[in-house]
Amino acid sequence: MTTKYAKLVDTTRCNGCRACMVACKNWNDLPVDPEEFKGSYQSHDKCGANTWNMLTFTEHVAEGNRFEWLFRHTACFHCTDAACVKVCPADAMHFTEFGTVNTNYDKCIGCGYCVQNCPFGIVELETHTDENGTEYELAQKCVMCVDRLREGDQPACVEICHMDALIYGEKADMEALAEERLAEIKERFPNANIYNPVGVEGTQTFYLLAEPPSVYGLPENPRVPLSATVWKDYAQPLGKAMLGVTTMAVIGGYISNKLFNKDDHGADEGEESNE
Amino acid sequence: MFDLSRRQFLKLSGATAATVAVVELGFNPNEAKAQANEYKIARASTTPTICPYCSVGCGILVHVNEEKNDVLYTEGDPDHPINKGSLCSKGTSIRQLYTSDRRVEKPLYRAPGSSEWVEKDWDWTLNKIAEKIKKTRDESFVERENGITVNRTEAIASLGGAALENEECYLIAKFMRGLGATFIEHQARI
């Protein structure tokens, strides 16, 4: 078991400056995603193929008629039991040595299964055009700046954060830090909780939330869709096993035919064959 | 069609099944291909600079591809005592100051009363500024006030910007005092 690394998002420290969004676009050379003004400071509805992380701005009235403006840095969660990796038929979605989930664009066929199955609605397809003018699609999402990690750098969003709302390190250390912070903020945010959903066996982007996940529009208990589990964990292995059984049957049949039935069936044809 | 004997048919079926089985059961030739995710700034030359926007004066590292004369990435300078590697969203976007196609690359001049901006070269612009300074200073210079020598002009003011270093600020202050300007200000005081 390799060491897992994780990004802790302490939403109670975030001041909503959006430097993480800009840093992500800057490092990954992502084009702009222009959006209309929708009556909120929130720039985009959700993460997209060219906006790998974004801030949600939630207006929330907490107990005692206290107004809270909740910011949440949202990006790919990098689930331990990742639905996108499970359903990907081309092995394009894969786990890296850091426990994060990455897309291999050379293998991606743009089928969109990952888009349909992501419990958090993060992955999106982007249309590209090759030099012959042929259009093709690729599944794009946050890759936790894996090229930076391999050089010993931190992800671009983490490095830029001046509030230390984003912290990156070994998962165990981050979990301990999250507990420590939770104890510190419990007085001000009695509903504070750590969002590291067990339904997907924990995520490599996990949160210290000031309010329950539903307030932020997060699923309380996200899971890999049942259809994906049934198909990939049961139906497909069974199908492959069946193939093996069939192959063995063919080989077995051939051998038994050769050994025992030579005189009866194989003889006349066998003599004429020129192997 | 193909003239297959029973034996050949069985051999072919077996080989096909075995191939399909091997492919389906996990052998993948692409696996061996290394994933070439090249580190974007591996061959870049890096220059430290100061953020030009607000008065905090954060340190920024600019990673440049010198062959293509292009800025590849800008990030907070981890060794800078003010920001220690972090930046705000505006400072993070400084790469676009250079790469944006909307960047103004030549001095623009709008004559008094005109509504049009005209592109001018630097020589013309600097001479124009010098002329204006000379004219304003000559017209507004006060040598004595209430019998005291003051040698000042109140018609010229200087406002320093956040991108200026200590040394530049020193030279600007010297220059302004030389002109007799008394209103010398810097953005870092806000």
Automatic annotation (TrEMBL), chain A:
Cofactor(s) annotated in UniProt: [4Fe-4S] cluster
Main location: other
Lineage: superkingdom: Bacteria
Binding site for [4Fe-4S] cluster 2: C24, C142, C145, C157
Binding site for [4Fe-4S] cluster 3: C76, C79, C84, C118
One Pfam family hit: Fer4_4
Membrane-traversing stretches: none
Cofactor note: Binds 4 [4Fe-4S] clusters per subunit.
One GO cellular component, as annotated: cell envelope
Gene3D superfamilies: 3.30.70.20
Binding site for [4Fe-4S] cluster 1: C14, C17, C20, C161
Keyword annotations: 4Fe-4S, Iron, Iron-sulfur, Metal-binding, Repeat
Subcellular location as annotated: Cell envelope
Single annotated GO MF: 4 iron, 4 sulfur cluster binding
Domain 4Fe-4S ferredoxin-type: 5-35, 67-98, 99-128
GO terms (BP aspect): cellular respiration; formate oxidation
PANTHER family on file: FORMATE DEHYDROGENASE, NITRATE-INDUCIBLE, IRON-SULFUR SUBUNIT, HYDROGENASE-2 OPERON PROTEIN HYBA
Protein name stated in the entry: 4Fe-4S ferredoxin
Organism encoding this protein: Anaerobacillus arseniciselenatis
TrEMBL record, chain B:
Cellular compartment(s): Cell envelope
UniProt keyword list: 4Fe-4S, Iron, Iron-sulfur, Metal-binding, Oxidoreductase
Gene Ontology annotations of biological process type: anaerobic respiration
UniProt main location, coarse: other
Reported cofactor(s): [4Fe-4S] cluster; Mo-bis(molybdopterin guanine dinucleotide)
MF GO annotations: 4 iron, 4 sulfur cluster binding; electron transfer activity; molybdenum ion binding; oxidoreductase activity
GO CC entries: cell envelope
Domain 4Fe-4S Mo/W bis-MGD-type: 44-102
SUPFAM superfamilies the record matches: Formate dehydrogenase/DMSO reductase, domains 1-3 (SSF53706)
Tagged with keyword NADP: no
Pfam name, any one: TAT_signal
InterPro entries xref list: Mopterin_OxRdtase_4Fe-4S_dom (IPR006963), MopterinOxRdtase_cofactor_BS (IPR027467), TAT_signal (IPR006311), TAT_signal_bac_arc (IPR019546)
Protein family membership: Belongs to the prokaryotic molybdopterin-containing oxidoreductase family.
PANTHER family in UniProt: FORMATE DEHYDROGENASE-O MAJOR SUBUNIT, TUNGSTEN-CONTAINING FORMYLMETHANOFURAN DEHYDROGENASE 2 SUBUNIT B
Name listed for the protein in its UniProt record: Formate dehydrogenase
